TrEMBL record:
Its EC number is 2.6.1.16. Catalyzes the first step in hexosamine metabolism, converting fructose-6P into glucosamine-6P using glutamine as a nitrogen source. It comes from Thioclava dalianensis. The active site is at 356 (for fru-6p isomerization activity). The gene is glmS. The chain holds residues 244 to 604 of 604 of the full protein. This is Glutamine--fructose-6-phosphate aminotransferase [isomerizing]. It is an enzyme of class 2 (transferase). GO terms for cellular component: cytosol.
Length: 361
């Protein structure tokens, strides 16, 4: 069932253009946004997004979208903190739970805490028959198909896609997005399957870079704006399956501590599309290079042209409009983790100490 792939994870990474195309056909047909009527954001006063692990990083990206498209205050939290903190909630609030399995114990407990306290509970899930899907007011399936690799890949990008369409609906419901802007964002989302296919062609060059990364003790990931949570996700993916210590940081945080770790043995992976904040990220990257850190710059043609001097390696991604770049750049982040693990000879699909579904706390 691996369809010629060595690992389920490799197969699931490669499936993403098809998975996203399926989800797009459902949620974003040519006729416009297709979301349930009851998912109405007009009277909501805040959104809480709650999840664990990779699903939490999907929530962290979505915070940028809900805030910028709908101008609605958003809080994000890992479920294990949310449930015990017993946060005050608004009767006009919406809580969104994101879970591939729909069975994660902490996320389910967080949902049960919210019952009767908020206006709407919503789940973004892969398993439509799961406990979380059954217990929310509105369940939105991500339609990614069964995910077997313990390291979540296609579920992450499909979660992002569904959250992106939700954020666009929120912007429309609240009159914060005008027709042309909405249409432009929809077009960008619809272009993702094609762009992802182009990104998947980086498989071979990434496999080569991974031979070097596999030697590292520590690896840092940097990103800004919606690419910051992607840096966190890239680091999580890498540590889960290659067992190399990795951390993600917001580029601007570098000089507040982590720069002390940089020397010539530390690869620093910079995820930086040529966007509004590109120059800021480049100056952080230059601080790394001044301390002899090995910079791997993932950017587009314009970004590489402007800033590749002095970097150790480059990955060229196609251009994409700023808000949705994390969906595209997830592909090289996943491939870097995958090939580094393969180069180290670890058990990619069943990494040590991890379970696919964490049903105990
Ligand atoms: O099934 P869930 O999405 O609720 O699972 C959440 C996390 O356990 C999961 O994303 C975990 O972090 C993955 N191993 C990440 O690759």
């Amino acid at each position: 069932e691996k369809a010629g792939y060595k690992h389920f994870m490799g197969k699931e990474i490669a499936e993403q253009p098809v998975v996203l195309a399926d989800a797009l056909r459902h949620y974003l047909p040519q006729t416009g946004l297709n979301m349930p009527e009851e998912l109405d954001f007009s009277n909501i006063d805040r959104i809480s997004l709650v999840a664990c692990g990779t699903a939490f990083y999907a929530c962290s990206v979505a915070k940028y979208w809900f805030e910028s498209f709908a101008r609605i205050p958003v809080e994000i939290d890992v479920a294990s903190e949310f449930r015990y903190r017993e946060p005050p909630l608004s009767e006009r609030g919406m809580t969104i739970f994101v879970s591939q399995s729909g069975e994660t114990a902490d996320t389910l407990a967080a949902l049960r805490y919210c019952h009767e306290k908020v206006a709407k509970t919503v789940a973004v899930v892969n398993v439509p028959t799961s406990s979380i899907a059954r217990e929310v007011d509105i369940a939105l399936p991500i339609m990614a198909g069964v995910e077997i690799g313990v390291a979540s890949t296609k579920a992450f990008t499909a979660q992002l896609l569904v959250l992106a369409v939700m954020a666009l609906k929120a912007g429309r419901d609240r009159d914060q997005l005008d027709g042309p802007d909405l249409a432009c964002h929809c077009d960008t989302l619809r272009s993702l399957p094609g762009l992802m296919n182009t990104a998947l062609a980086l498989d071979a060059p990434i496999a080569e870079l991974a031979e070097h990364l596999a030697e590292a003790q520590d690896i840092l990931f940097l990103g800004r704006g919606p690419m910051y949570p992607l840096a966190l996700e890239g680091a999580l993916k890498l540590k889960e399956i290659s067992y190399i210590h990795a951390e993600g940081y917001a580029s601007g945080e570098l000089k507040h501590g982590p720069i002390a770790l940089i020397d010539r043995t530390v690869p620093v992976i910079v995820m930086a599309p040529f966007d509004r904040l590109f120059d800021k990220t480049v100056s952080n990257m230059q601080e790394v290079m001044a301390r002899h850190g090995m910079v791997l710059l993932a950017s587009d043609a314009k970004g590489l042209k402007a800033a590749q001097d002095g970097t150790w390696a480059q990955l060229q991604l196609p251009e994409i409009a700023e808000p949705f770049a994390p969906i595209l750049y997830a592909v090289p982040a996943q491939l870097l983790a995958y090939h580094t693990a393969v180069a180290k000879g670890t058990d990619v699909d069943q990494p040590r100490n991890l379970a696919k579904s964490v049903t105990v706390e």
